Every structure is written in C-alpha cells, then in structure tokens.
Automatic annotation (TrEMBL):
GO terms for cellular component: cytoplasm. Keywords: Chaperone. Residues 4-69 form the J domain. SMART domains: DnaJ. InterPro entries: DnaJ_C, DnaJ_domain, DnaJ_domain_CS, HSP40/DnaJ_pept-bd, J_dom_sf. SUPFAM superfamilies: Chaperone J-domain, HSP40/DnaJ peptide-binding domain. Residues 263-288 are annotated as: Disordered. Residues 273-283 have a biased composition (Basic residues). One of its GO terms (biological process) is protein refolding. This is Chaperone protein DnaJ.
Amino acid sequence: MAQDHYATLGLSKGASEDEVRKAYRDLARKYHPDLNPEDDAAKKKFHEVQAAFEVLNDPKKRELYDRYGANYEAMSGAGGARGGWPGGAPGGGGAGEYEFDINDIFGGGGGGATGGGGFADLFRQFRTPGAGGAGGAGRERHGRAAAQRGADVSHEITVPFATAVLGGTAALQLSRATGKQETISVQVPAGITSGKKIRLRGQGNPSPNGGADGDILLTVRVAGHPLFERTGNRLDLRVPITLAEAAAGGKIDVPTPHGAVTLSVPPGSSSGKRLRVRGHGVRPKSGEPGDLYVELQVVLPEGLTDEDRSQLVEIAGRHPENPRSTLKW
C-alpha cells in the first residue's frame, strides 16, 4: 500500500508549511537512528518521515502529490520531457530549471538516514560537529541552501530572592512573533546572582528551513527581600531581642534558608552585636557555602511607667559610660 505522506506526519491535507516542518522535526527527533540504534521499526519510520517531508516541503512536489496522489512521479512527466523528473523538469522544463536526485529521498550514497547530503544535512544537531558524511554534509547541494539555525532571543527574568538562594523554578511569560502568548518554566540553579545568564536551548525562534531552533538567552534579576540582605554567598539578618534577653542572655530562634536555628545571646549584649551561623548562608551548586550573620537589635518594652524609667536611669547612673566616645567627623 502506497504511503500517505500526510498521515505519516500526522497532518491534514490543508496543513501549513510551518505545521509540516514542525511535525517533521518532532517525528525525526523521535525516530532518528542515532537515538534508536537497535530499533529497526524506528529506522523504517524515520525513512518514511523523511520521504513524506521531502514531498510536502517542496511546493512543486506537493502540488503534484495533492493532484495525483501516490502516482505523482509517473504523472509529472506528462506533457514534458519523457521519463519525468529524472530526465527533465516538471512541466517540460530542462534539467537546469529543476534538478532532482532520487538520493535526496533515501539519504544519498546508500548511507541511509545518517549518510551525507540531502536530508542528513538537516540533522547536524544529532551529529558530532565537524563530522562529514559521504556526500559532504553541511554543503549546499542541488542549489538548495543547507539547513539554517533559528535566531536566538534575549529576555530578562526576575526571580524571587528565595528561589535565587535555594534554586527552583520560575515562570517566563513570552509573546511570540506570531502573537501567541506562552509560559515557559525555567530551572533556576541555587546561588544564582543578578546579571547571570540562563540558556534555554531550542526555545528561541524556529529555523526558516528545517534546521535547529534558536535558544532563549535569559538575563537574571534577583528580587529583594524585606528582611535578609545578600552579599555574594553571605546573608545578613537583623533580629530584635528584648531588654531582658540583652541584659541576662537567653536562647532565641532565628529563621534561615535551610531551617530555623537556635542561638545563644550572650549576657550584656548591645544592639549591633553580630552572631555568626556557619554554612547557613547561600549554598551554591558549586563552591563553598556562605554564612549567616545575625545582628542583634535591643527593643525596649512598650508602656514603660515613670517608675520603670527611673529604675533604668538609676542603673545607668551606677555604670557611667559614653558609648559615643569614638564618633568623630
């Protein structure tokens, strides 16, 4: 039974050129012999996909195929050069107007899908850079340009402070050139900083002629945090303590990106005293983890009475100090 090229690509007869190319790229990647080395059925399917695309991607071949179906090659020579395309162009033109090579359908040189030239050129993304096939992959053949890679697209993305510290996912809202709105999930590595780049391979503009799609290049901006401040892999946090905790010391619970920790406040602590929590800062994907520095801030109780204030003044009088003695212009 003759192959139905539209059914092979999963398309209807009225499919657009873009739909033909997209279906081809998806199926070719799925059944490519390099990705299915032991699967004979996948190799057969790959050849069918190649043959279907060869016809439906060429406006002249597709027109004849739509008109005559599986017999389009035999009918193509009617009214023109005898023997159809191998001896002359469709419609009676000379070979210089349209050159046809049956090897273009089957991969060329008996090498199958992974041989050089023809449709093998479209699969350079599956091959080792610089590797050449028997027919000279990467060169222009039969007046047709080699597959062209789609253009890269640049965007910015703002990620939450916590996501930048711990890693995770962020949503990127895109407006494509076609007007289509799209949301892409972006994997954010732990420890990323503002200005860093993330590359989303194959998410950029499509190729104009069946090549690899371009990439999206994201510039990362990290949002601020209402409490934590970050310097490299170091985090700083101001933590309020009571007057009693400052005077007598005590235990306080402090949040960190990696879970709450309990710290000991030394007796007689003043505002500005810093406590270091090792390894509880930013833990990047590679490199040493940073530390968390907790800065204590003494907070007086509300609703002090005149008697309470008098007692504080009396205590201060027994311990005369000038905490501003080091302040100078």
